[in-house]
Amino acid sequence: MGASALLNLLFDDWETPAKIRFVSLLYAAGGALAFPVGLFLARLVSLGRHWQVALAAAFVCLLATTIGLTGGLFALHYRSYYAQWHEPALTVAWSVQFVHTVATAFYQFIVLGIRLYFPLGFIALALASIWFARQQR
């Protein structure tokens, strides 16, 4: 996932090398955290079923966990930037600000960040799903 983001950002001639490095590492960390979680969830869903179910389970679980965990890391970084303008921690106003900041970060990640997974991330997802389905036979 990090390689997919890196190539997309390099081809787009995006920002500065430091920002490209940061975003690539964010995507790599999200993918690395999501892989074992996605495989675990796929095993739970496809336990004792046909290989087609294992393939679909791996595809959906790996996709959801990769997007979710990478988006979560992005949301934490986003939240750390805006924390300086938020109310003191654990107050009602802070809770509202926290929820809205994280929701906004996820929205921006979905709108702007998903494109960095194509085409390499999608290919890696398909290959990992096929590998998982073959292991389950």
Outline the structure in words.
The protein is mainly alpha-helical and 137 residues long. It has one domain. The chain contains five helices and no strands. The chain has helices at 2-11, 17-46, 51-82, 92-113, 120-136. The chain crosses the membrane at residues 25-45, 51-76, 116-133.
Short description:
This protein is mostly helical and 137 residues long.
Give average pLDDT, whole number.
94
Helix content: over 70%
Low-confidence stretches: none
Q: In one word, what is the shape?
A: flat
Proportion of β residues? under 5%
Count up the domains.
Answer: 1
What integer value in Å does the Rg equal? 17 Å
Biggest β-sheet strands, sense, barrel: none
> What is the terminal separation in angstroms?
27 Å
Count of distinct strands: 0
- Please work out how many helical segments DSSP would assign: 5
Order of helices and strands: HHHHH
| Overall SS class | mainly alpha
SSE topology:
Layout: H1 2-11, H2 17-46, H3 51-82, H4 92-113, H5 120-136
Helix pairs in contact: 1-2, 2-3, 3-4, 3-5
Organism: Mesorhizobium robiniae
Keywords: Membrane, Transmembrane, Transmembrane helix
Protein name: YbfB/YjiJ family MFS transporter
Name a few traits of the molecule.
single chain; mainly alpha; flat; YbfB/YjiJ family MFS transporter; transmembrane helix; transmembrane; membrane
